[in-house]
Amino acid sequence: MYLKELTISGFKSFAKKGELGFSAPITAIVGPNGSGKSNVAESFRFVLGEQSVKSMRGKRGEDLIWGGSADVARGNRASVTITLDNSNRVFPLDFTEIKIERVVHRDGQNEYILNGSAVRLKDIQELLASANIGSTGHHIISQGEADRILTANPKERREMIEDALGLKIYQYKRQEAERKLSKTVENVAQVESLRREAAPHLKYLEKQVQKIEKSLELQAQLKEVYAEYLRREDSYIAFHFDRLSVLRKPLIEALAVAEKELTSAKKTLQASESQADSAELISAEEAVSKAIGERQSAEREHSKCEGQIALLERRLADAERRSTSVEGKAVAYADISALIKDIEQQVSKALQKDEVAFLHRALSDIIHRLKLFIERSSAVKDTTTEFDKAELSRLKEEIVKLQKQVGEAQGKETAARGVYASLEQKRAQEATDGREAERAVFRLVGEQRELETKVERIDRELIVLERDRTEFKRELQEAVALLGRAAADYFSYVIKSEAGAEVTPEELVNEDRETQRARRHNLEKLKIRLEELGIGATEDVVKEFNEAKERDAFLAHEIADLEASIIKLRELIAELDGKLEEQFVVGIKKISFEFNRFFTLMFGGGEAELLTVVTKTRGADEELFEEGEEVEEKKEDGIELVAKLPNKRVKGLEMLSGGERALTSIALIFAMSQVNPPPFIILDETDAALDEANSRRYGDMIEELAKKSQLILITHNRETMSRAGILYGVTMGGDGISKLLSVKLDEAVAVAK
Ligand code: ATP
Q: Which of 8, 9, 13, 728 to mutate to test the pocket of ligand 1 (most atoms within 8 A of CB)?
């Protein structure tokens, strides 16, 4: 026996706590109309998880709670506890006894308590289904509901039979699987939608990352090209700068020397061309002529003096002779000739000089001589002789002076001539020097020009190099800004030739500039490409991309997992469907057999069976379809009843009498209970419509049934009561509260009335 006890408290008319023990296979509950018997049956439904308040004759949950009477105030909660034996572990729980309690509160809140722990309704349902206590209530037949199985449609009937066959557990599992399936399908859709939503961003990030990778690649390339370019440029500039500086230095020195030499040569030249020397020479020349003049004049004076002396001496001699001879003696020819000769001499001298002064002087001299001659020749007196003698001695003194003068003048002339000669020599030397200086100037200017040209050429190269160096500094700064400090370490970069050998320093500095310019051009192109990629904060993007990718992979994995579980769930559903179908087919045959057996027993013949039928329905939402529209019809398996009464031609359940209907449904209920006996069956006045003979048959069948299931029978029927091991009477006093009491058969019969 599974059913041990039922405790009702605050449920409907059971305002106070009442207990029912079920120690016998058959328990009958008896009592007058309206005493609360059906409330007991409903308390079973309630505690077993019934969700339809209507099936418990209420509208709302609070209708199940003691509503109060004139004497006793209403309750706030209704609670029913059922105690089931689990010593043989019918219920898959490790307890020997199972206590299920359900409480409903006025606010409609329900509580389910399993062995003291709050659980969900679902847990209760599954637990009960595992012991074939289904929720369709095929084992609780309410009052007037005996023929519910007859009035039900094939589909509902099928459900009842499935429940009775204990297939509910599979259906729960199936429902659970379906629920999980739809949830999983929903999840897949959600995850797919998440993935779809994220896809454009992921794609965008992927593109960004590709760009970043491209940019990193370009940067690496740029680094290489930059390193080579900078190293080459720096080496080139430094080398050629040094080279040109080395070349320039001696040229500058040579230029300075040339400049100095040129200055000196120019000075020499200038000196040679100077007028000062010639003026000096002229004055020296003049001094010579002057000295000559002075000497000649002195000589003339001297000669004149000499002549006078000779004349006087001759006259004195003449006077001597004349003093001895006749006065007035003729003039001697020799004197005349001497006179003439003298005159001629003077004239010729004067003419030689071709100077007026000389001529003048010569003429006056001639006149003076002639006068002297005439004087001497015409009148010679003794006084003259005296005079002449005096004159002669004076002249002799004079001539000494004059001689000295001549000597002095000659000395002066010699000196002047010496000065002139030395000046002349100096001038000649200077002329020679000038010519040489001129040649030197010419040579030096040429040299200078040549040197300057060379220096200019070097300077032009240096200017280019200087410009290159400024540009190089700028480029280096740019490289550092672009690639970081490492870009400045270009000097350690090893440049290799196309053949793979390291480039020598000579090759490095002697490369064609065009190649370097091409390298520069390439650099610019790379930079432009990099700029075009326009990459900003790369780390963040890569991180975001990796996260997004991971998330996408996670979602893809999630989808795969969900799809795998969809497959598994579908397999499970198919498996459950298979089991359901298989067990249903087997079960329905058995029930059909038992149905026929109970039916023939009840009616003493006839024939009854269950048929599996396929009905076509248009689905629950058929009203949604427009008229004339093609509607997909749903095929549903259902159960039809076929019952043929003995000796009657009537067919069809509708044609049966109330009693016949009751018997037919009892036969079916019993058949169902036989195939898969539930732990207990509650029958609320199922026997109400039976006459005495049928009541007995009913009683017999109850006893047979009680072998497999515990029976709780609510009845007014004495026959039924007589079959019960335990009898409870339900009474209701003026306070409207149902009370339970254990009664004997006789009392029961009395109570029931
Ligand atoms: P019958 O033999 O005529 O079928 P019964 O013994 O089965 O009668 P029930 O239908 O179980 O009687 O009980 C009905 C009684 O329970 C009524 O008197 C009704 O007023 C009372 N009742 C139902 N619900 C409540 C409630 N929430 N509070 C108080 N009393 C209630």
A: 13
Nearest residue to 650 (alpha-carbon basis) of 660, 665, 638: 660
Give 621's pLDDT tier (boundaries 50, 70, 90).
very low
In a domain, 385, yes or no: yes
> 13 alpha carbon to ligand 1 midpoint, in Å?
6
Best residue among 9, 12, 40, 62 to mutate for probing ligand 1's pocket (most ligand atoms within 8 Å of CB) is: 12
Tracing tokens 């001499």 back to the chain, one arrives at 345
Range(s) of the domain holding residue 311: 279-324+331-448
Chain center to CA of 9:
71
Nearest CA to ligand 1 atom 4: 33
Q: How far is the CA of 569 from the centre of ligand 1 (A)?
A: 46
Instruction: For a ligand 1 pocket test, name from 30, 37, 39, 685 the mutation site with the most ligand atoms within 8 angstroms of its C-beta.
Output: 39
Q: Exposure pattern of 541-577 as b/e (b: 16+ CB <10 Å)? A: bbebbeebeeebeebeebbeebeebbeebeebbeebe
Is there a domain that residue 232 lies in? Answer: no
pLDDT of 16 above 90:
yes
In the three-class reduction of DSSP (H, G, I as helix; E, B as strand; rest coil), residue 16 is classed as: coil
Question: Which residue has the least CA distance to atom 17 on ligand 1?
Answer: 34
Mean pLDDT of the chain: 85
* Ligand 1 geometric centre to CA of 643 (Å): 35
**Model pTM score:** 0.53
Indicate which atom in ligand 1 lies nearest the CA of residue 38.
11
**Which residue minimizes the CA distance to atom 31 of ligand 1?**
13
Distance 696 CA to ligand 1 centre (A): 28
Ligand 1 centroid vs 54 CA: distance in angstroms?
14
Joined tokens for residue 479: 């490289």
- Band the pLDDT of 632: cuts 50, 70, 90: low
- Assess whether pLDDT exceeds 70 at residue 420: yes
Strand partners, 80: 8, 102
The token pair at 34 is 């309206």
Q: What is the pLDDT of residue 650?
A: 67
Q: Is it the case that residue 178 has pLDDT exceeding 80? A: yes
- Give the number of the atom of ligand 1 that is nearest the alpha carbon of residue 74: 28
pLDDT at 486: 86
Contact (CB, 8 A) for 190 and 561: no
The set of protein residues with a Cβ atom below 6 angstroms from ligand 1 is: 12-13, 31, 33-39, 63, 66-67, 143, 736
- Give 752 Cα–ligand 1 centroid separation in angstroms: 15
Contact yes or no for 104/64 (Cβ under 8 A): yes
Q: Over pLDDT 90: what percentage of the chain?
A: 33
The whole-number pLDDT of residue 440 equals 87
User: Is the pLDDT assigned to residue 627 strictly greater than 60?
Assistant: no
- pLDDT score, position 753: 63
**30 has which bridge partners?**
729
694 Cα–ligand 1 center, Å: 28
Q: What is the mean pLDDT of residues 663-678?
A: 84
CA dist 685 → 32, 251, 710 (Å): 12, 140, 16
In this predicted structure, what is the pLDDT of residue 347? 82
In angstroms, what is the C-alpha Rg of the chain?
82
With a cut of 60, say whether residue 585 has pLDDT above it: yes
- Is residue 607 in some structural domain? no
> In angstroms, what is the span from residue 702 Cα to ligand 1's centroid?
26
- Which ligand 1 atom is at minimum distance from the Cα of 65? 27
CB of 180 within 8 A of CB of 570?
no
How many domains would you assign to the chain?
A: 1
Q: Decide if 192 is inside a domain.
A: no
- Per-residue pLDDT of 462-482, as tens digits, reads 999 999 999 999 999 998 988
Whether the per-residue pLDDT at 624 is higher than 60: the answer is no
